[in-house]
Amino acid sequence: MSVSQTKYKVPESFAKNALVDETSYNDMYRQSIEDNEAFWAEHGKRVSWSKPYSRVKNTSWDKDDLHVKWYEDGELNVAYNCIDRHLKDKANEVAIIWEGDDPKDCRHITYAELHAQVCRFANVLKSLDVKKGDRVTLYLPMIPEAAFAMLACARIGAVHSIVFAGFSPEALAGRINDCDSRLVITADEGLRGGKTIPLKSSVDQALKHASDVKNVLVVRHTSNDVEMVPNRDVWLDQAQEHVALECEVEPMNAEDPLFILYTSGSTGKPKGVLHTTGGYLVWASMTHEYVFDYKQGDIYWCSADVGWVTGHSYIVYGPLANAATTLMFEGVPTYPDASRFWQVIDKHNVNIFYTAPTAIRALMGQGEAFVKQTSRKSLRLLGSVGEPINPEAWEWYHRVVGERRCPIVDTWWQTETGGIMITPLAGATDLKPGSATLPFFGIKPEIVDAEGKVLEGPAEGNLVIAESWPGQMRTVYGDHQRFIDTYFSTYKGKYFTGDGCRRDEDGYYWITGRVDDVINVSGHRMGTAEVESALVAHAEVSEAAVVGYPHDIKGQGIYAYVSLNASVDPSSELATELIKWVRTEIGPIAAPDKIQFAPGLPKTRSGKIMRRILRKIAEDDFSNLGDTSTLADPAVVDNLIANRQNKK
Ligand code: 6R9
């Protein structure tokens, strides 16, 4: 990424009204590090506890005694915090604005209505025999019922696992089985860009490989006909007619699980990242308030999908815990046309807008006219998340969308971290395009070299976090050892993020991207191993190696090297078929952009594929392939170069 030298000072008008200015950021940050436990004892009070905590922090990152507990003797309920506690003053304020795929569809849901909906939903779950601690899989479009379902689970202490509705039936089945869900919640169909997405029928497909599921609860959304299996499938609207209107909240221990969310790693199948109740809620709500400078009455919009962690923390839990008005958008940025985002902002007077670099780059490519035909006067603050934002996209977002008036918070974090970790605070931090800038309160980032030596001052290396924070994931569901191995074994006593990072002379952090075999396609995390195992599952494929390469819009594209079985000839038809195959095995987001048939892959004598070489060839940069002398057969490299698919 090119390095931008530009610096944007905090606008004075912004600093004056912001929750924190530079001095208070420095003071609070210092306190949060020097007296970490006292800091979190104080800020834990931002949520309501039915039984107050007396122990704040009990954490160890020693891999022989690894445990992470925050507020461990406290009790609370997340649904109570996101709904009930606001009813006294804010029952009639809007909690959720829903904007449908079709610009004519929109709903405003007040806190009172949210309460009623969630109570009835929770009672339906109970009627289907869902109990505290049970896992429930959600496979839903971006409709308010997704938030109702999450909060209904939280209300009765069930653990939700949301599977992004773009994942295939196979991927869904794997995630249902991994956490042993007995109930799946879905909708008849989803709607995106004017097209219907057959969700219920995908669930039916998935359940052929997930036989322990007892019930499927179906939300009526498009109302098109779908098949309902007797004694298994239940319409939500019908079930709701027979349940009580009130549902008590279940008191939960701070460390009881709240949700599981599967995410890709560098090896093996996706990991079930487990987040718990108390620390997560403190983290999600505090970061939401400070990072977005949220004030009562603001209209806040995060354009993510609830199938990703950003949707969990910054569409649902963070904003609702803060009694905010959160906008939920079902559609895509380019439907009916490329000005949709900006039209939605005008229609609902959005003040704070949070989206991903891939969307910004795609819209940038459509030209400024789509933006300029809208007013956007309501906008005050912009945010970015999901991947490094290139300075060109940052400048466009700042100049064209925000008319140089709105600061941009480039927020670095991960599914594992529960919430934002490195970010500017708009009233406190001067901005540099492309830099996530400085740590949030309580976060102690460090840059280490390959041997684990901590580098001081301006430096480049791997990003680790040296101290626990309340929103940290607690384990990999069902595989605690994998949690320890993945995050705490590379660097002793530190959390390894998997990201590379540079720190400049001002102490600003610049995330340079993943240093492991994870690629980031349009802000979606994909393990190269997952795509490879889908490819080799095809009957004609003997071996596959997948790498990322720079892609103008997606950030990274997927480049697959495929070796075929001896009797099979490469063809463009087969390449198309393999792309389709991966779409069905995992989902459209995993479909390779390029397939290169390769008679052989570059391997060391011990059989390890040298991905470094494959990455270079995919980038069309093979002038310096480094040391190839350890290859078992150096001639394969010439063949790969000759047949490369990204010739410039
Ligand atoms: C929230 C989310 C996490 C990975 C992370 C990093 C990349 C996220 C970023 C960023 C640079 C930012 N990433 N935000 N890189 N600047 N502002 O995206 O979670 O899906 O788990 O992805 O995304 O590489 O390690 P998740």
From TrEMBL:
Record-listed ATP binding positions: 386-388, 410-415, 499, 514, 525
Protein name: Acetyl-coenzyme A synthetase
Essential cofactor(s): Mg(2+)
Recorded family membership: Belongs to the ATP-dependent AMP-binding enzyme family.
Role this protein plays: Catalyzes the conversion of acetate into acetyl-CoA (AcCoA), an essential intermediate at the junction of anabolic and catabolic pathways. AcsA undergoes a two-step reaction. In the first half reaction, AcsA combines acetate with ATP to form acetyl-adenylate (AcAMP) intermediate. In the second half reaction, it can then transfer the acetyl group from AcAMP to the sulfhydryl group of CoA, forming the product AcCoA.
HAMAP family linked to this entry: Ac_CoA_synth
Sequence positions that bind Mg(2+): 536, 538, 541
